[in-house]
Amino acid sequence: MRKHLFWTLLLVLALAGPALAQRPAAHPLPPAPDSLQRLLRTPGTPATYLKALLRVAAAYGTHSDTARTLCYARAAARVARQLHEPSALGQALIEQGSTYYRVGQLAQAERLAEQALPLVAGQAGEVIAQRMLAQTHYRQNRPAAALAAYRAAYRAAAARHDVVNQLNIDNGRGALFHNKEQLDSAEFYYVRAARGARQLSDELPDKRELEASALHNLAGLNLQRKRYAEASRYARQSIALRLATSNSVNLGITYGMLYVMALDTDSLPQALRYARQEMRLARRFHQFDGMQLCLTHLGTTFARLGQPDSAEAYFRQAVALARQGSQPLRRGASLYALAKFYDKQHRPAEAQRTALEVEALDSLYRSPATALLNLKLLGGLAQARHDEAAALGYFQRQRTLELRQAAASSSKEIAALRVGFDTERTEQQLALATARAAAEAQRAALLRLLGQQQTTAYRDTLNRRHRLLLTQQLLAAQQTSRAAQADQQVLALRHQSREQTQQARLQAQAARLQGQQQELATLRARQQALGVAALAGLALVGGSLWFGRYRQRQAAAAAAAETLLRQQIAADLHDDVGSLLTQVSLQSDLISQGLLPAAQHPAELRRMASTSRDAVRHMSDVVWGLSQLGHAPTLGPLLDRMRDHAHLVLPAAGLDLNFAADPALKHLPVPTAPQQVLFLVFKEALHNAVKHARQATEVTVILRHEAGHLELAIRDDGRALAAAPAPRPGHGLANMPARVQALGGTVRYETEGGFGVVARLPLG
Asked: Angle at Cα 592 formed by Cα 589 and Cα 598, nearest 5°?
C-alpha cells in the first residue's frame, strides 16, 4: 500500500512540476494577447515557458504597450536566471532596454544594452544590442561613441549575413550625420537604406517598414533643405507603405512633417487636416508626448487662421499635458508658445506672466533656444512698457546666452569634424581592403598564367627536334638582323659627322654677327643716355613748378569742401533739431496757457518727451559728425555708429535687425563727405521703415564695396507696395536723392517683397 502511494505521489509531482514552474506567484502577470494565451497555458518544460514569455513581451513591444512589455520581459529574465540560460537572459534584457529607450529613459536603456552584449555575443541579439547602444549614445549627444557602436553592429550583422539589420544600421548612421548637419553623408546612407530595402524579398516582414523609415528620413532631410516637392513625395510614399502594412504607430511623425511643410507654404486648411490626423494617431497609441506636440500644432494653426479662442484652448491643453509628460524639455517650449500667443494678441500682462514662468524653469525643462527666444520676448515686453533698465538687463542676458551657444556650437563642430575624420578613416580602410582584394585577384590571374606557361613548356619538350630547328632559324635571323643594324650604325655615324661640321660653321658665323650687334648696341646706349639726361632735367624743373601749384589748389579745395560740409551740418542742425525744439516749445505753451483739456496733458507730455529724445538723438548725431571730421579716414567708427543707431531705433518699434557688412570695410579709407551722407541716408531709411512699413518684422541692412563705390541697401519685409512711394518735399525720401546726387551717386527704391532703399556713392 505504501509503495503504491509513493509512486502515485511521484506521478503527481511529475505532472504538476512544469505548471508550477510556469507561474511565479510573487509577480502576477497581466493577461497575454488572445493569440498567445494558449501558448502560456499549455503544460511544458520551463524552457518552453521561457520562450512563451519572450514571445509575449515581443508582441506587446510591437504594439508599444510599455507596462505589459516590461512585466513579461522581467518575468522572462527571472526564469532565465533560474534556468541559467544566458542567451534568453540577454534577449529579455534587450526587450527591457528597448522599452526604456522608447519612453526616453536613456540611462537605463544604455545600462541594459551593455549587460546584454556579453550574453548574446555571436548571436542575432548582438546586432540589436549594439544598435540600441548606438541609439542611446546618439540621443545623449555622443556622436563618436554612437558611430563606433554602429560600426560594431554593422560588422556583427555582416558576419551573420543579416541584410535587414545592415540596412537599419545605415538608416541610423544617416540620422547621426543628419543631426550633425552633414547632410550629404546623411543622404548617402538614407538612399542606400531605401534602395536596399526595396530590393529585399516581399516575404520579409520588415521590408516595408524599413523602406518607410528611410523614406521618412529622406523627407525630413529635404524639408530641412526647403525642397518641399521632394519632401512631400518621400513623406507620402512612407505613409502609403505603412498603411499597406497596417503599421500606424509611426504615422503620426510623418503627418507632423507634412504639417510643417503645409504651414511653411501657408496651406493652412491642409495643415489643419494633417494636425488633426496626427492627433488621432497619438491618442490611439497613447503617445502623450506626441499629443502635446499635436496640441501645439493645432494652437499655431488656429492662431494663423484668426481663431484666437480655439488657439488659446489648444495651447493651454498642451501646457497642461507637458507638465505630466515624459520629455521635460517640451514644458518650456509649450509655455513659450503660449506666451508668444499672448504677445501677438496684445495681452502683455498674461504674456509677461507666462514668459516669467518659462524663465523660472530649470535647464532640464527648457532648451537653450527656448531660453533665448524667451529672453527676447521679455525684452520686447519691457521696452513696450518703457522699462529701459529691465529691457537692458534682458538684452545683456540674451547676449551672454548667445555667446555660450556660439561656444557650444564650436564644440559641436569640433565633434562633427571628429566624426567626419572617423568616417574618412573607415572609408580609407575600405579602400585598402578593396585594393588588397584586387591584388589577390591579380595574383591569382598571374598564377593561372604561370600554370599555362608551364604546361606549354612541358608540351614543347615533347618535340625536341622541332625546338632545335626553331632555335637554329632564330639564330640565323638574329645574325642577319645584327649585320643590318651594323650597316645602319655606320651610315648614322657618317651623317652625324657631316651635321657636326655644318654646326661648327654656323656657330662661327653667329659669333661674328653677335660681336657686330654688341658694338651697335653700345653706340645707341650712349646716345640714349645723353637724351634721357637732358629730358630728366627739363622734367624735374617743370614737375617742381607743377607740384607747387597742385598743392596750393588741393589746400584751397580741401578748405572749401570742409567749409561747405560744416555749413551743411549747421543747416541740418538748424532744420532737424530746430524743428523738433520748436515743436516742444509749442506743445509746452499749449499746456502752460491752459489751451488744452486736462485729459490731454499726459499724452502731450509723452509726445514732448518723445520729441525731446529725438532732438537729443539728432544733436548727438550732428555732434558725432563734427567730431569725426578729419579724424575718421576709415569706415570703422561709422559702422559702429550705424549699428548703435539701428539697435536703438528698431527694437523699440518691434523690428529685428539683420546687419551685414564685410569686416574688411572697417579699414577702408573713405573721405568725410561720403561718410556723412551715408549716415544721413541710413537714418532716413530706418525712420521710413519704422513709420511706414506695413506688417514688417525685420529690417535688413547690407553695406558692400565694389568697383570704387559704396552701396548701402536697407530693406524691410513688410507688405509689398504697388509702386515706390511719392516723396514729400523737404522730408524723408526726398532728402536722400538730393544728398547722394550732390556727391555724384544714385538712389533707387525697390517695392518687391517689402520696401527697400539702395544708395550708391562714389569714393573718388
From this structure: 115
> Which residue has 544708395 as its cell numbers?
759
Phi first, then psi: give them for residue 761, nearest 5 degrees: -115, 135
The alpha carbon of 651 is separated from its chain's Cα centroid by a whole number of angstroms, namely 27
Amino acid letter for position 317: Q
Q: Beta 755-762 vs 656-661: how paired, if at all?
A: unpaired
Give the mean model confidence (pLDDT) for residues 100-125.
86
Closest Cα to residue 250, out of 195, 218, 210, 201? 210
Task: Name the helix (H) or strand (E) containing 760.
Answer: strand 755-762
Query: From CA 360, how far away is CA 658, in angstroms rounded?
Result: 30
- Per the listing, cell 550625420 goes with 177
Reported as a single tens digit per residue, the pLDDT across 14-64 is 434 433 334 443 457 777 776 676 777 776 788 888 888 888 888 887 776
Q: How is 660-710 classified by DSSP, letter by letter? A: EE-GGGGG-B--HHHHHHHHHHHHHHHHHHHHH-SS--EEEEEEEEETTEE
- Rounded to whole angstroms, the Cα distance separating 135 from 131 reads 6
The residues spanned by each domain of the chain are 553-630, 632-762
d(CA 579, CA 569): 15
Q: What is the mean pLDDT of the chain?
A: 77
| 8 A C-beta contact, residue 258 and residue 215 | no
Contact 144, 133 (CB under 8 A): no
- How much of the chain is helix, strand and coil, in % rounded to 5? 80, 5, 15
Claim: this prediction has a pTM higher than 0.70 = no
Class level of CATH domain 632-762: alpha beta
Tens of pLDDT, residue by residue over 94-104, are 889 888 887 77
